[in-house]
Each structure stands twice: as structure tokens, then as C-alpha cells.
Amino acid sequence: INSIHHVESKNIQNMALMKLYFHPGTDMAQAFAETIGYVNRSRSFMPAGTVEPFVTRLDTGSAPVGYLVLSSPSRDIGTIQDLALFAVRPMFASIPGVSAPPPFGGNQRAIVVKVDPDRLRSYHASPDEIVAALSAGNVVSPSGNARIQDTMPIVPVNAMLKDVREFGNIPIRSGENIYLRDVAIIEDSTDIPVGYALVNGRRSVYILVTKRADASTLSVVNAVKKNLPRMQAVLPPDVELRFEFDQSPYVIGALWGLGEEALLGAGLTGLMVLLFLHDWRSVLVVVLNIPFALLGSVVALALTGQTLNIMTLGGLALAVGILVDEATVEVENIHTQFEHTPSIARAVRRGNAQTAVPRLLAMLCILAVFIPSFFMEGAARGLFVPLSLAVCFAMITSYLLSSTFVPVLSVWLLRHHPLAAHRAGRFSLGRLGGFHAKLLQRLMRWRWLLAGAYLLLAAFVIGSVGGRLGWEIFPAVDSGQFQLRLRAADGTRIETTEEITLQALALIRQEAGPDNIAISAGYVGLVPTSYTISAIHQWMRGPEEAFLRVVLRRGSGVKISAFKEKLRETLPRRLGDWLRQKLLAEGLPADKVAAQVRQLRLSFEPGDIINTIMSFGSPTPVEVAVSGRNMQDNRAYANKIFEQLARVPSLRDLQIAQSLDYPAVEVRVDRERAGLSGVTASDVSRSLIAATSSSRFVVLNFWADPTTGIGYQVQVEVPPFQMDSPSAIGMVPIKNKSNDKQLLLRDVASIREGTMPGEYDRYNMRRVISMTANIEGEDLGRVAQHIQHALAAAGDPPRGVEVAVRGQIEPFEQMFRGLALGLSLAVVVIFLLLTAYFQSVRLALASVSAVPAVLAGVAVMLWATGTTLNIQSFMGAIMAIGVAVSNAILLVTFAQEHRRQGQPATQAAVQGAANRLRPILMTSCAMLAGMTPMALALGEGGQQMAPLGRAVIGGLAASTLATLTLLPMLFAIIMVGPVRSASLDPDDPASPHFAPEGSHE
């Protein structure tokens, strides 16, 4: 298959799951078609009885948005499962935007032939004979037609039984008076239970409400809620259907929070403009530009196939602080022109003409800083490209509006009040402007010393403070929910695992406090093999495993991170004490009890969608995989790594993911003895399957419910509780062709207890042993360094053994490499834009001289607020670079104009800074005010966007100070010397290359 990045597979008893990962940019429709073709071809090489593989496409956006929970006080789980599968699921699947996985919690209905081994032995019969008799006595057969006169009646035959009780009349052997009812009990029941679903501690059935990648969470949830009465109507009155774990309130809360932040930011922005201009009409012009720019961005997002989600709305909230830049510069310059002309229209036109090109250049510089988004890969690209597009579309719309809408609105609304403008300057910035000019003139004497000190100090702050910052992909967010996976000793029966899970849930309720848990859902044991597709959404390794998803009530005051640490400390100890008492009371030897308690483990898994996606299939943020052809070498080296990882203090829940010593009862057929007894290994295998499992997938047999017409399988099995020891397995009858002597399994095979791997995992066809762990107390970047040190301490791997660090660490390193490359490219693009505009490398260099201050300010702000350097704060840093450069462009442009008028570089720099003091302070203060609500994380879900706002505030505050004080000094240093035009036009008299027509003659 073309464009495959890698293939992962997990294999347990009766089930295998393969995940195919493709390179970015792959045509997934073509890849999906190729995958189906190769899977169909592979079926030719699969063992008999293998269920046809199910192929589905799984995108990062295909996430559960809720649970449809079915419960009843009077009906058993099998009946509820049947109703969920055949009554609710077809209606649910017809809802637009949803995919409908099979229900969890129950097993498929089946006609179960429960064979009594003692009766089989008394009749010298075997389970294999029962399966063969059933296949001959209940057959799905086509019907023909008769030609009777002018009619063609159908001629059906009762080859398939209609009444379940009739199965007892099937003869086991021809010519003998032995029937199925003599050796078995026939029940309308379910397949052998291998797992249970728990909702609030009670057995239930639920269907995951999984949205498709291109569907909206809110639209899917609303559609499901709208159809709930219709689905409830097809169920019996005593079966209740509920929609639980609704994710839409979190989405709605986050959307409202972002909206509130945007409105609050716009209000604070308007307040800043009013503070500087003292003109409410100017405030109205600036603020009216914001909603129209946002509307233009929304339209552009819709045209490019984007939707309104947390990332695009976060981009719009971020844009609010920047949108005022264009309109504020325009309106401020119009007020400046009022002092030179009595005509409002002329002042507006002059103000617009003077700022059009600098504003365009500033906008292009801001757009350039979003280049890193397009260098990301995979899920990060899918998350942050929409954010970047939202900001870019808003900026482009804002520039167009500032050049068209704002001038028209200014002519309509503004009033010519030179005195008011004078008063505004006098009372708001008059004293500050004078102090600023005098300060710059004095500092110019030590400009070389101060410029060098600035660069050294910025480098020191970036190196020292920045080096202390933590690194991670996304900021830690308290989602109010967590997911816990419990593992008992390998091979523990699901009944015991269920008791452990319920006890764990009770202890969690005690630790959380009364009424602090809103809802809990869990699953115990394996996913039924009838619903293999369910393993994609919920992978379970064995009957000893269970998971719990717990949602805390809003306002409970419980911090998830601290609560997890508390559970790590108390839950294993209290569960171990309870399990020890239980097993000792059941008579289990003390040494085995100690082993069972010692193997009790727990691990927390991502409870929110973002961390789930960014772990790329790993159950935890950290996964170290050891792969090779030789499992003994893999295991030996994995144990060395495990010992080293256990010494890393910030790793939690460290464990080997696979069951390597799963208990087994090995049956070794002696083929010589079997041949002398007239049986084959195939005969032994068929009888053993029916005795220890069922004939469900070995020999297909169907029965149609005459009421509904739905077909169900008929299976032969020995009641599981009767196969309770190796000796009981040895007593399984084997088919004897002569029927004159009873043949048992122990007669042709040896039976002994042992161990075997309970799970085989592969990565690109190489067997893998993986170690998983969570992180607490340190950031992902430092943990990645600790892991590398641990791998080095473990020594070189054996020949043919490879080690890979996965989970969040691999995408973390890829993303930040892309961000660093993109940031470097953004600075280069900005520098080239400035060089092309100014036609001077020196002026371009002066314009980007505030970048070190931005990086230092970001580092200090993140360190002071305890914020890590993550993708959000990284985006905020490069956003601050764009805004800082745009402010510097205005100052450098005006300073160069004064220099061209004959002023020396020092005086031109001071004059340019004085002219641009008000607009730079206005735009910077307005943006700082607009970012404050985001930085404070006031809205729901605001914790994810807060690092972005904090980085912008820190970088912009430092760059504003540097632009107004240090940039003029750097300008004076760089631009020393006579003014020379950078024009290359031979027809420009100011150009050093001026050569008028005919001058050579």
C-alpha cells in the first residue's frame, strides 16, 4: 500500500487490531481502497473460522461526544443488548454526522447448547459429535417450486427449526436412540460473557456516540438529543434510554468563554483608544472595525471549508487585540492631520495615504509569523492551521476595511476639533512626550554602550530564564474528568475483576467526597469477538483489565492533577488490603495471594480529546518500545530499560503494557497415541474448542427468530464453570470412530499448566515490548531528556534490537522542530520584506532589532506565571514578533523621513520616536488590553489559550519599551553617515544611478 508511514498491530486471544498510519498529504480515499483490496486478498491465507476483517477509517476528529445508555430494572443484559443492537442502533446510525459502533456491555443473543460432559461420557459421545449433529439437524436450506396446474407454489422444508425446544429432538447418531436433549440443555441465551459495561457502578449497555471527522460536535449532539424520543418509542416501557457524558456543554462553555473574552477585549481596546484620543467618535470608528473584520474572517473560513471550533474561535479572539492596530493607526494619523488642514475629508485622505504602505507592510509581517503553522505535521497541523487562517483572514479584512470603511466612517462621524486634539495631546501624552524626547536625547550619548548592553541582557535573559521554562505540547488543562485503567493479575476472571473495579469506584467516591462525582462509566474484561470494530474505540487486553471514566461535578473544587496523585498513593494500598482479605477468605494460599496483590496495577490515561490525539495511539504520554525478531532479547533489554526508567522520579504508573506471562493450560497431543486410537489432532482440537470455548466461529449454524426474522447463531459449549481444572479438561471426550471405547483427552495428550505471552504487538512487523508511563511534577521536555539518559544507562541494545520513544515525545520533538524552522523562516521573510520596502538592509536590520526584546519578554512572562513553553505560547511569541516589527516599521519610516529632510541620524531618531509615541502606545496598550482576558483564562476552556495571551503580553510589553527607547539608539548607530537613496531607477534624480536620456551623448 502506497504512502504508509508505519503499521501497528495488537494481537490477543480471538482478536487482532491493526492500525495503518499514512504520511501527511496522502490521498486517503485511494489509500482506503488499496487497504480493502489487500485485506480481501489476505483472507485467502487466514485460518478457517476467522471472522472477516472489518476495515474503517479513523481520523483525529472522530471522537466520542457522548454515550447512549440503556438500562432496565427488570430485563437482563442480553435482552438489552439485543434491543440496543437491532432497535436503537439502526435509527441512531441514520442521524447525520454520526458513526454507530456496536453496543458495549452485553453479548450477542444466541441459541446455546450447553453440553454436560458426564452425560457425553456415558453415551461415549464427544463435543465434536454434538456440533456435527447440530449442523446436520438445523440447516439453512433454499426452497424450490412445484408446477401444479397454473400455479408455482413455494416448497419450503423445515430444515431450519422454528421452535428452540425442537433442538432437543435432533439425533446425535443415526440409527441410535440418542438425542440432543439427552446430553445437553438448550437455552435462548447469549454468547459466553467476556466483558461487562458499568455505568455508575451498575451493569448497563451503552453505545458510543462517535462523530465523523467532518461533523460538528454541537450539530451531532443536538441531532441525537432531538431523536432520543423517537428511539425511546421503539423500546419497551421498562427500558430507559439516556444520553450521558455529553461533551457539548464543554464545547459550548469554551465557545462562550472565547466569545466573552473577545467582547471584553474589544471593550478594553475601545477604552484604551478613548484614553488616548479623548474622542468617543474615534472609539466608535475603531471598535466598529472589529466585528466587520471578524465577520469577514468567518466568511473566508467558511469558503475554505473550516468550521467554528475552539481553535478558529481562539484565533478570532487572538485577532481582536491585533485588529485595532490597523484602525487605530489610521484614526490617530487622521487626528494628526487635523492640525494641518481644516478639511475633514482632506485630513482623512492624507492620513490614509501616509499609512497605507506601512500598514500593508506591517500586516504582511504579521501574516509571515504564522508560517510555522504550515510546517507542522499531522494532528498539530490540523489544530493550528485553522487558528492561523482565522487570524490571517481577520488581518486581511481589517486592512481592507481600514483602507476603505474606516476613511468613509471617519468622514461621516469625526468632527474637526484641533483644540480637542491639542488638549488630548497635552493632558494625556504632553508631559510624557516631552519627558520621552529629553530622555532619548540624553541616552543618545551612551547609545553604543546601551545598545551593547541591550543585546547582551536580552541574550542572557533568553538563555537563563528561557532555559528554566518547561516544554510540552499543550498546556495542562483541568478538564474535570479522568480515565483510569486497572489491571489485576494476568488471567484473573472477569467476575473478580468486576468486584475489584466496583471496590475501586467506591474508594474513588470516598476520596472525592460526597456527591462530587457526576457520573462514571467503565468496562470490565474483553470486547466480544462478535463486535471486533469496538476494539478500535476501546482496546482491552484481557479479562483482568478494566477501565473507569469518572466525571466530577462542576464546582466540586477537586483538582484533577492532585486527585490523581492522591489516588496513586491510596488506591493500590486500599485495594490491595481488600483483595488480600477476599482471597484469603476464599482459601487461596498466602503465597498466591501475595502474588495476586503484587500484580495489581493502575494507570491513568488521557481523559480529554487533545491529549488522546497527541499521544498517537499510546495510552500514556510516555511509551518506550523495544522491538526485534527475538523476543528473549527484546524482553531482557526491556527489563534493563525498565529498571532505569523506574529511577526517574517524575514518571508515574510505569509498567510493561503487554502480558508476557499469561497463565495457560497447555495441551500437547501425542500424535502417535492419537493415531493408534483412531483420532487426529483435528479431532482433538474440535472437541477441545467446543468444551473450552464454543463452536460459534468454527462451525456456523443459524436460527431465525420467527417473530422478528433476525438470525442468531447456534453454538455448542460446555458450561464454563465445569472446566475448572486441568483434570476437568483432561476428561473431555474425544470422538472415537469405533464408538466401542470411551476416549478422553488425557488418553491422547498431556496437560500441564504454564505461561505464555497474552499479547503479541508488532511495529512494522517486528515484535514489540512497550513500557508506558505518565508524567507528574515535570514537563515533557525534561522528561524526554531523563528518558534519553535512562536509555544510555541501560547500555547498548543487543544486535537486531531497536528502541523507540513514542507517545507524546515523538510528535513533541517533530512539532518544535517544525516551529523552530518556521520561526526562522518567518524572520527571514520579514527581513526580506523590509529590505524590499526600504531598499536598505540597514533599515531592515533596525526594524527587527526589537525581536530580542520580544523573546526576552516572553521568557520572563512565562517564567513569572509558571507557564510552559508549548505550542500555544510559541504561537503567542511569534505573534508578538509580528506586532513588534509592525510598530518598529512605523517608527523607522518616520525617522528616515526626517533624516531625508536633512536632520542627523540621532535627531531624526528622536523626532521619529516622538512622532510615533502616541500611535505605538495606543496600539500596544490596546492589544495588551485585548489580550488580558485571554491571559487570565477567565472563560471555560480558557486554560488552553492562556499561554498564548501571556506570551503576547510579555513579548509586546518588552518590545514596546525597546521600540520607544532602544530602537532610536540602534537607528542612530546603524544609519550613521550621509543620506543616500537606495533607488536603482536611472530616471530617479535622487538615485545614485540617475542617468537621464541623452546624457551619454
Name its key features.
seven-stranded antiparallel beta sheet, 53% helix, single chain, alpha+beta, 1001 residues, Multidrug efflux transporter AcrB TolC docking domain, DN and DC subdomains, 15% strand, nine-stranded antiparallel beta sheet, Multidrug efflux transporter AcrB transmembrane fold
Concise summary:
By secondary structure, the protein is of the alpha+beta class. Helix content is 53%, strand content 15%. It contains 31 helices and 24 strands.
Write the layout of secondary structure elements.
Blueprint: E1 4-12, E2 15-22, H1 28-42, E3 64-71, H2 77-93, E4 98-99, E5 109-115, H3 117-122, H4 127-137, E6 144-145, E7 154-155, H5 180-183, E8 184-190, E9 195-199, E10 202-211, H6 217-233, E11 240-244, H7 248-277, H8 280-303, H9 310-337, H10 344-368, H11 378-403, H12 405-413, H13 418-443, H14 447-468, E12 481-487, H15 494-512, E13 517-525, H16 534-537, E14 545-552, H17 560-585, H18 590-598, E15 601-605, H19 609-614, E16 622-628, H20 631-645, E17 651-656, E18 662-669, H21 671-676, H22 681-692, E19 702-704, E20 711-717, H23 726-730, H24 745-748, E21 749-756, E22 760-763, E23 766-775, H25 780-793, E24 802-807, H26 809-838, H27 841-847, H28 851-864, H29 871-900, H30 905-936, H31 942-974
Parallel strand pairs: 5-20
Antiparallel strand pairs: 1-2, 1-22, 3-10, 3-11, 4-10, 5-8, 6-7, 9-10, 9-13, 12-14, 12-15, 13-14, 16-23, 16-24, 17-23, 18-21, 19-20, 22-23
Helix pairs in contact: 2-6, 4-22, 7-8, 7-9, 7-30, 8-9, 8-11, 8-12, 9-10, 9-11, 9-30, 10-11, 10-12, 10-26, 10-29, 13-30, 14-28, 14-31, 15-17, 17-18, 26-27, 26-29, 27-31, 28-29, 28-31, 29-30, 29-31, 30-31
